Amino acid sequence: MMARERLRIGMQKSGRLTEPALELLTRCGLSFRQSRDKLFCFGEGEPVDLLLVRDDDIPGLLAQGVCDVGIVGRNVLDEFQLTDAARDLAPLSELRPLGFGACRLSIAVPLEMHYSEPAQLEGQRIATSYPGLLGTWLREQRVGASVVTLSGSVEIAPRLGTADAICDLVQSGGTLAANQLHEVEVVLSSEAVLAGPSTLPVDERGDMLELLLRRLDGVIQVRESHLLQLHASGSSLDAITQLLPGGPRPTLLPVFGETD
Ligand code: PRP
Ligand code: ZN
Q1: Considering every ligand atom, which ligand is closest to the CA of 154?
Q2: Long-range CB contacts (within 8 A, 24+) of 85-93
Q3: Ligand 1 pocket member 136 (CB < 6 A)
Q4: Which residue, 61, 67, 152, 259, has fewest beta-carbon neighbours within 10 Å?
Q5: pLDDT at 255
Q6: CB of 173 closer than 6 A to ligand 1?
Q7: pTM for the full model?
């Protein structure tokens, strides 16, 4: 990989994380030339550029050094770390949780199944796009189930008869409800994170990354103190969620220690 002087951030090209991620970077004082639908966005003030890609590709691009840091869901990052491909590459770490894009990777079963414990999944077929994370959870629970890996449309597998249960991302719960499934176990609590190699590059990019991390900490701290003030003053959840990148998000609730 050729030496670069500019820090390159990989992020989702279009999806739930795109708008809030751009807003966060803007709050960190960064601005970019070129429209968002282009693959590459050149940073105007600071030597920081964006590469807009599929979220699932971000960990690989980081591990190969094509991007220096990335904004990606913890679910995507952790799943990548468990793949064979990751084993021979530089380990990645979660540099900062970013406080938006909250969701969870959960196991869901058909409504008619009366679920009470993981042992009931013994011998069942579970469809997922997260075989690494699901496999790890099943081993921890000492449950022998067969993992059916699908790249998409996981939620329809039980109705098609190709699986008995699923393990998929849940945000609002709308997808599960629409498919007559109910959530029974949380395998991973996720949100957007800043991911990167465990050691910073020792050059201009490393310096820029340090500056970016300081600014991010400042932005996140200000946001959290505003949230706490609003919460203490009894403001409505609506008013509070306006402060989050990406606007209203019901998944903000866990910030206040409430369970869902
Ligand atoms: C996820 C997941 C579900 C849906 C859940 O897909 O696979 O289909 O979101 O969200 P809900 O609980 O609010 O209905 P996403 O749209 O992120 O796309 P992808 O998994 O195909 O990348
Ligand atoms: Zn995806």
Answers
A1: 1
A2: 85/60, 86/59, 89/63, 89/64, 90/63, 90/65, 90/197, 90/198, 91/197, 91/198, 92/59, 92/62, 92/63, 92/195, 92/196, 92/197, 92/198, 93/195, 93/196, 93/197, 93/198
A3: no
A4: 259
A5: 37
A6: yes
A7: 0.87
